[in-house]
TrEMBL record:
Organism field: Bacillus glycinifermentans
GO MF annotation terms: glycosyltransferase activity
UniProt keyword Glycosyltransferase present: yes
Signal sequence residues: none
Record's protein name: Phosphoribosyltransferase family protein
Keywords: Glycosyltransferase, Transferase
Record has Glycosyltransferase as a keyword: yes
UniProt domain TRSP: residue ranges: 293-414
Length: 466
């Protein structure tokens, strides 16, 4: 494979090598992947880094679209480029204190699965904004308000579930947030669906990287004329990409872990009292409900303070249980923002990234940033395969695994084997929502140190905490 890149736009003068590396997808539709070094998906990062990336996207949009200048821009860029915790934290504090006031409050939509947290961070940065993120999950008892396709993806269907009033004000612009644009087709697909159901005049597409060709940009101009709208774009880096080579339909990499789950000490933490359950949107009767603060079903401007308070409370609780110095906080799939935000409030020496649906070919070659990868069934839906990338051996003293809904202990055994393979022996499973426990969930939530509902034996005791 050969990928030729040329940079045409770099408005904030960010060195390209700080933003991304390249990797090979295991996907016949598209052979390559931009592996973000600031997103917190495939590569572990300080959890403050994605929050700063979101803030810079919001600042760039406000400046390009409305000419709104902010006196914190230079400090946020400085913090974003820094590697020390103090500088990044200072820049994040500035973003929280000085949110952007735009002429009209927008509706921010983050794209699943990779940009759910990135979009939430943009919403955080804009005063009066509303937020929702798309999802690949199909709910049996709810109808989506938007449906569209991400054509190049291995899982093409994208859905949006929310109350209709979020789109009722036609004067409000819609901001779409993605980690990168290669053709822009996904953005145009959702714009067409919104315009058909909830027409308005103004859209914006924000992305870390924009690699659209002149032909793809022309498609945006055609869509503007066709729909009678304006579509602006903002990115931290833009240019052109040319690909040559044969795509991979399978990887030769062996992703089977060699570890034994019995070598892992596991404890279970239930944070359901910190967050707001949405029982009317559970997939099946008896299942644990979704959590409002994710933004999957919409957040209004007034919800920001509640999300912040919930994450602060959760971070304090987890920090009190923290044993190791070097800690990994691992999100799962679309469930990225709350784990990332909590991790950002846990102090120094905390790293964050997430599991993913994306099949990527790992390699130990020098200069290739996806060093290793492990596949396993998604604990919340075992019919969907997930992956963890870039887990170093003995790289962390302990791991916090964040799962939105309580799950059966046996469904997590494949993950425990991966941690054992990487010689990470202290694991805390953090759940945000409790169900009926009919599936053998270990989150008993009864305030006792017990093994109620756990049908799995471990050499070390499995402990439960409220």
């Amino acid at each position: 494979m050969e990928v030729d890149l040329s940079v045409a736009g770099n408005p904030l003068s960010i060195p390209p090598e700080t933003l991304f590396e390249m990797a090979a997808r295991v996907n016949k539709k598209r052979g390559f992947l931009f592996v973000s070094k600031v997103l917190g998906k495939h590569i572990p990062v300080s959890p403050l880094k994605p929050l700063l990336a979101s803030g810079l996207l919001a600042i760039e949009y406000a400046e390009r679209t409305f000419g709104l200048m902010t006196d914190i821009k230079a400090e946020v860029i400085k913090g974003f480029l820094a590697e020390d915790h103090e500088s990044m934290k200072k820049a994040c504090d500035l973003l929280e204190k000085q949110r952007l006031a735009l002429p009209v409050s927008p509706i921010v939509i983050g794209f699943a699965e990779t940009a759910t947290a990135l979009g939430h961070g943009v919403y955080d940065s804009i005063e009066g904004a509303s937020f929702i993120h798309t999802t690949r999950e199909t709910l049996k008892d709810a109808d989506p308000v938007l449906t569209f396709e991400e054509e190049h993806s291995h899982a093409v269907d994208q859905l949006c579930y929310t109350d209709e009033p979020i789109f009722s004000a036609a004067e409000r612009p819609v901001i779409l947030v993605d980690d990168e644009l290669t053709t822009g087709k996904t953005a145009l697909n959702i714009i067409r669906d919104i315009q058909k159901k909830h027409p308005r005049r103004e859209y914006a597409v924000l992305s870390l990287l924009d690699w659209r060709s002149s032909e793809h940009k022309e498609e945006f101009r055609k869509a503007e004329a066709e729909l009678g709208v304006t579509i602006s774009t903002s990115a931290l880096l833009s240019g052109a990409v040319a690909y040559q080579g044969k795509t991979l339909d399978q990887s030769s990499y062996d992703d089977r872990p060699r570890g034994d789950e019995e070598d892992v000490s596991v404890r279970w933490i239930d944070l359901s009292d910190c967050f707001t359950a949405l029982p009317h949107l559970s997939e099946q009767t008896g299942d644990a409900p979704f959590v409002k603060e994710t933004g999957r079903f919409g957040l209004a401007a007034g919800d920001k303070r509640g999300v912040e308070a919930a994450c602060q409370k959760a971070a304090e609780r987890l920090n009190a249980l923290r044993k190791g110095k070097r800690v990994l906080c691992l999100g799962t799939g679309e469930f990225m923002y709350l784990p990332m935000k909590i991790a950002s409030l846990m102090g120094e020496h905390v790293f964050y990234h997430s599991t993913t649906r994306s099949p990527i070919h790992p390699s130990g070659e020098e200069g290739y940033d996806v060093k290793n990868g492990f596949g396993f069934p998604n604990p919340e839906n075992e019919t969907v395969k997930h992956f963890i990338y870039n887990l170093p051996k003995r790289g962390y003293d302990e791991v916090f695994v964040f799962i939105e809904k309580s799950v059966a202990a046996r469904s997590l055994l494949p993950m425990f084997r991966i941690f054992s393979d990487r010689q990470i022996n202290d694991v805390t499973v953090v759940t945000f929502s409790k169900g009926s426990d009919r599936h053998g969930s270990c989150c008993c939530g009864n305030g006792q140190l017990s093994r109620v509902g756990c049908d799995v034996s471990f050499k070390r005791p499995v402990r439960h905490f409220d």
